[in-house]
Amino acid sequence: MKTDKTLWEILVPSYSNEGEEYSLGYHNIWDDKVREITNGLTILETAKGQWLSLENELFVEKMIPVRIHCTEEDIDKIIQITMDYYKQKAIFAYEISSNVKLVYKEV
């Protein structure tokens, strides 16, 4: 069965713009919002990111890579939710693969 869903990864911040670490409970609310759209997500270990803003300001921060199987329309919604919820200046998400197999065991 062909689907228009592909595998995406989005980088979620570990800290606020003010340097405060987000609590697990705060992240769990975001998880719930994403699961409402996609039915699932895979949260990976944190990674250290470095990037320059449009104002040429260097940001060095821990990011949480999260993998999501969804449509491009869904990832666009998730990007906006992430931008608003974490009050970010930028959100980085990318398609990992369009060759995705999701196999369910028959019950």
Describe this structure in words.
The chain has 107 residues and is of the alpha+beta class. It has one domain: Alpha-Beta Plaits. It contains 2 helices and 5 strands; from the N terminus they run E-H-E-E-E-H-E. Strands 1, 2, 3, 4 and 5 form a 5-stranded antiparallel beta sheet that branches. Strand 3 and strand 4 form a beta hairpin. Helix 1 runs antiparallel to helix 2. The longest helix has 15 residues. The radius of gyration is 15 Å and the shape is globular. The two termini are 18 Å apart. The relative contact order is 0.30. The mean pLDDT is 92.
Q: Architecture in CATH?
A: 2-Layer Sandwich
- Fraction of residues in helices? 25-40%
N to C succession of SSEs? EHEEEHE
Q: Strand percentage, roughly? A: 25-35%
The total strand number stands at 5
How is this fold's topology laid out?
Blueprint: E1 6-13, H1 24-38, E2 42-43, E3 47-52, E4 58-70, H2 72-85, E5 93-97
Antiparallel strand pairs: 1-4, 1-5, 2-4, 3-4
Keyphrases for this structure?
107 residues; alpha+beta; Alpha-Beta Plaits; five-stranded antiparallel sheet; 5 strands; 32% strand; globular
